[in-house]
Specification:
It contains 8 helices and 11 strands. It is of the alpha/beta class. Helix 2 packs parallel to helix 5, helix 3 packs parallel to helix 4 and helix 5 packs parallel to helix 8. Bound molecules: methionine sulfoxide (SME).
């Protein structure tokens, strides 16, 4: 994922002025500058576009279909009725993320239905500017998933860690633990060495995720009694089990130096990575 287009539809040029209680006080140029700098920190190039006209948005998507590898689209009210927009998204075959600043499910009835949702890889709403950041991260994640699908079983564990560490600046420590009897044993990692190379299932966040057979996001590790410290800089953590049927083969463990670094998008992408790893791992 080297290049993406970020499109804002009708009336988003009035951001900061239009219903600030719903849309906030940030202006469109401010939003676009923040999106560009977030993307560039992830090594992603951006072309921005805003239009109040359905056809202009369609033209822009078509014109950029060979340059862009993904689309972030806040199509405003067009979301709810533009089949032409839906058609262009499926026609160009680029992964698209539908973004809304406000929570479209807590407003008027007509805003609950999106005619583009089905052709988008994900719908994000109610997070304001952060929604655009999550969308960019998700597009990068889809690319990681695609690359991992091409890796052979000998390299899958090292490649998974390398790809995730390289593509997400917020992932400070990325490692894979494998289940060995009643323990999780650190197999490979990138980041500072961890003292926790063997963790009993049931201990720490890692052990809790293995016992529960479920992903765990810890927004603030200092507020979680289960947390086993790897580095004093760590602020948040996500652990995603690698499952084959009901068996835990291991897990992907990621630390961040940022508080609340992980969200549902990280979890979805990492669960897809874990599924790819599980598929090629011997049971
Ligand atoms: N924090 C983990 C231990 C592993 S280190 O983060 C690498 C836990 O609480 O299980």
């Amino acid at each position: 994922m080297r290049n993406i287009i970020v499109i804002n539809g009708p009336n988003l040029n009035l951001l900061g002025e239009r219903e600030p209680e719903v849309y906030g006080t940030m202006t469109l140029p401010e939003l676009e500058a923040a999106v560009t700098s977030f993307a560039s920190a992830m090594d992603v190039g951006v072309r921005l576009f805003q239009s109040n006209h359905e056809g202009s948005i369609i033209d822009f998507i078509q014109e950029n279909r060979h340059w862009a590898e993904g689309v972030v689209l806040n199509s405003g009210a067009l979301t709810h009725y533009s089949y032409a927009l839906r058609d262009v998204i499926s026609a160009v075959k680029l992964p698209a993320i539908e973004v809304h600043l406000s929570n479209i499910h807590q407003r008027e009835e007509f805003r609950r239905r999106s005619v583009i949702k089905e052709v988008c890889a994900k719908q994000i709403f109610g997070l304001g500017l952060r929604g655009y950041f999550h969308a960019i991260e998700y597009l990068v994640g889809l690319d990681v998933v695609k690359q991992l699908q091409r890796v052979g079983k000998e390299q899958i564990l090292t490649k998974a860690v390398a790809l995730l560490k390289a593509r997400y600046p917020k992932y400070t420590w990325v490692g894979i633990y494998l289940a060995e009897g009643e323990d999780l044993v650190l197999h490979n990692f990138l980041g500072k060495p961890s003292p926790h190379t063997r963790i009993p299932i049931g201990k720490g966040i890692c052990g809790a995720a293995a016992s529960a057979k479920q992903s765990i996001i810890v927004p603030d590790v200092n507020a979680d009694a289960r947390y086993l410290a790897c580095s004093i800089e760590t602020q948040s953590e996500i652990v995603v089990p690698i499952m084959k049927g009901a068996r835990v083969l291991g897990e992907v463990d990621i630390d961040s130096d940022q508080k609340e670094a992980f969200h549902d998008g990280d979890q979805e992408i990492l669960e897809r990575c874990a599924a790819i790893i599980a598929e090629v791992m011997p049971s």
